[in-house]
Amino acid sequence: MDKVAASRTAGQFLYPALDPYDQRMLNVGDGHRIYVEQCGNPEGVPVIVLHGGPGGGCSPAMRRYFDPAHYRVILFDQRGCGRSRPHASVEANTTWHLVRDIEQIRETLGIENWLVFGGSWGATLGLVYAQSHPDRVVHLILRGVFLMTKAELDWFYGGGAGSFWPDVWARFAEMVPADERGDLIGAYHRRLFSGDLMQETRFARSWANWENTLASISNDGPAGESPAEYARAFARLENHYFVNGGFLEEDGAILKRAGVLAEVPGTIVQGRYDMICPPVSAWKLHEAWPASRFAIVPRAGHALSEPGISAQLVRTTNALRHNLSPLGEGRGARA
Fold first, then answer.
1. Which residues are CB-contacts of 146 (< 8 A; sequence separation ≥ 6)?
2. H helices of 109-149, where?
3. Is residue 139 part of a domain?
4. Sign of CA dihedral 111, 113, 114, 120
5. Closest Cα partner for 85 from 24, 22, 31?
6. Residues 6 or more apart from 227 whose CB is under 8 A from it?
7. Which among 131, 115, 185, 121 is positioned nearest to 154, based on CA atoms?
8. CATH number of the domain where residue 41 is located
C-alpha cells in the first residue's frame, strides 16, 4: 500500500468534495467570533477537526477524510485566523481559550462526546483538550505530532532542520541582523508585531515560506509566497504561541500528563521524514500512552497532503466506523 500511496496524489484517497449543511459564526467572548461548519451525516458519529498552525485555518479538503454517510464532521477556524474575526488578533488568544472554544462548540451543537482529529499544532491542541476533558473524547487521531516543547522549537528555529535545508535556512535567518539570530522566534516577534503593516507582512511571508517549504517530502526548493492576509495571521499567531511556550504550565507538560489519557484510545500517524515535527516526539508520546497505536508512514513528510499520510488517515477513520456508534456512545477500539 505504501508504494501505491507514494505513486498517487492525496486527493485520490479522499472522499468526494462536499459542502457544509450548516455554517455559522459563534460568539465565544473576548471580542472573538469563530467560524464553525458541519458537513456529512447530521445523525452520524461527531468528529471535531483541529487545524494546524496555530493560525492555519481550515480548508475544504479537511472535510474529505471521513465517510460522509457515517460521520458528522465539524470544522472551525480557531481564534484570529481563517474566517474567524478579528483577523490576525492575538488578544485573548491562548491554548486555554481554544480549549474553552472547543467545549462551547460541543455544547452549542448538543454533542455528548466525539472523535478528535488534528495534525501538527492541531495534534497539540487535541492532546491538551483530551487531557482537559478526557470523558468527551472517544478516540484521538493525531498526525505529525507536536508536543510544544523547547527542544522541538529549537530544532525548527535554531538550525536543526536548517542543517538539511541550508539554502532555505539562510534566507530565513538572514532576514534579521546577525546579533539577533540566536533567538529567531524573538527576532521575528519584534517585527511581526512592530505596528508597521508592510514590515509585518514581509516577515510573515518569510516565516510562512520557511515552514511551507519543509512541509512536504516532495518539495525541493522554496515554496511560493503565501497571500499577505493568510501569511500575516499564520505567522503572528504561530509566533505568539511559540514565544509563550504554547501557554502550557511547564516545558514537556503534555508528555508528563500522558497518564490522563489512559482510558482514551488513539491513533498516531507520523511521516518518517517529517522535518517540521520529527518522529521522536510521536514515538515518545506513543511510549507514554499505552492506549495509542503508532503508524509510521514511509517516504512521507509533515503535510496533511502527503499521499501516504492521507491514505493512512482515511484507513484509520474507515476502520473506526466499525467501533463507534452513531450516537458516539462508549470508547472506540483501536483502529
1. 120, 121, 123, 124, 152, 276, 277, 281
2. 121-132
3. yes
4. positive
5. 31
6. none
7. 185
8. 3.40.50.1820
Contact 59, 49 (CB under 8 A): no
Cα distance between residue 277 and residue 155, in whole Å: 9
* Catalytic machinery residues: 120, 274, 302
pLDDT tens, position by position, 39-90: 999 999 999 999 999 999 999 999 999 999 999 999 999 999 999 999 999 9
Closest to 146 (Cα-Cα) out of 165, 127, 169, 129: 127
Strands 292-297 vs 266-271: parallel, antiparallel or unpaired = parallel
pLDDT tens, position by position, 114-166: 999 999 999 999 999 999 999 999 999 999 999 999 999 999 999 999 999 99
Number of folded domains that form the chain? 2
pTM: 0.94
Strand pairing class (45-50; 292-297): unpaired
Its domain, for residue 213, covers: 166-240
| Residue 156 lies inside a defined structural domain of this protein | no
